[in-house]
Design brief:
Elements: H1 7-39, H2 47-58, E1 66-67, E2 70-71, H3 81-86, H4 90-103, H5 121-135
Antiparallel strand pairs: 1-2
Helix pairs in contact: 2-5, 4-5
The protein binds heme C (HEC).
Heme C (HEC) binds next to helix 3.
Length: 148
């Protein structure tokens, strides 16, 4: 066996490595596409949840909150607020959201503030539906604890 590392050996490692990892990449992409129908909670995506997603974007909730770890870290994670404040019950969560959104800002000294968005009852219900849908997405139990 040759003791020297030749140019052709380097080239083979380069091409071989590229092909190997490209195949791994294709395989993982196919796997993700295959398992998505079981993990992305698409059956819970109704029209109300879709409207809630638009409200979520138009009001820039993500500018303060994170959702499944993505977003800003100023305010609590909301991917599991359905479990945390609604006890995984749709009616209880909607009631909580109506109360919470109407009560803002709380004006408690030393506590971070959430603005008043002046949303209608229907809009708050749509946001609740969207957050309930998000809570059902299987994300390997992220966030790791109920407080987010
Ligand atoms: C300017 C920053 C900001 C924006 C924008 C914002 N929030 Fe908040 N939100 C907060 C803060 C801060 C808290 C925690 C307040 C507290 O505990 O008193 C909070 C708390 C919450 C809670 C309660 C979380 C819990 O665990 O009890 C919900 C639900 C919520 N926000 C929903 C929303 C929705 C829906 C939107 C978009 C319409 C939104 N927030 C936009 C700052 C924001």
């Amino acid at each position: 066996m040759s003791e020297t590392f030749t140019k052709s050996m380097a080239r083979n490692i380069y091409y071989g490595g590229s092909v190997f990892f490209f195949l791994v990449f294709i395989g993982l992409t196919m796997h993700t596409t295959k398992v998505m129908p079981e993990t992305d909670n698409r059956e819970a995506l109704n029209e109300s949840a879709a409207r809630g997603k638009h409200l979520w974007e138009d009001n820039n909730c993500i500018g303060c909150h994170s959702l499944i770890g993505e977003g800003a870290y100023f305010a609590p994670e909301l991917a599991n607020v359905f479990q945390r404040r609604g006890g995984s019950n749709s009616e209880a969560f909607k009631a909580y959201m109506q109360g919470w959104m109407a009560a803002q800002p709380l004006n408690i000294p030393g506590r971070r503030q959430m603005p008043q968005f002046n949303l209608t009852e229907q809009e708050v219900n749509d946001l609740a539906e969207f957050l309930e849908y998000t809570a059902g997405i299987k994300v390997n139990n992220w966030p790791p604890n109920i407080e987010g």
